[in-house]
Amino acid sequence: MSEPKAPVVLSLVGPGRGGSTVIGRILAAQLGAPFPGETRSMWDWTDFQGGPLCERSCGCGRLICECPFWEQVIAEVPSLLDRQFVAEAERIHAGTISAMGMPLYLLSAQKWLRSLRLPPGYLPELRRLLSVIAEKHGSSVIVDTSKSPRYVTLLRAAGVDVRVLQVLRDPRAVVYGWSRRREVTVGKSGRALPNLSTPMQSLTWDGTIVQSWLRCRVEATAWHTVRYEDFMNDPDEAMRRSLTALGFQTTAEQFLVRREDGWYADLPVQHSMQGNENRVQTGEVPLRIDARWRTEMGSRDRFVTSALTWPLAALYGYWLW
Question: Does 95 fall in a domain?
Answer without folding.
Answer: yes
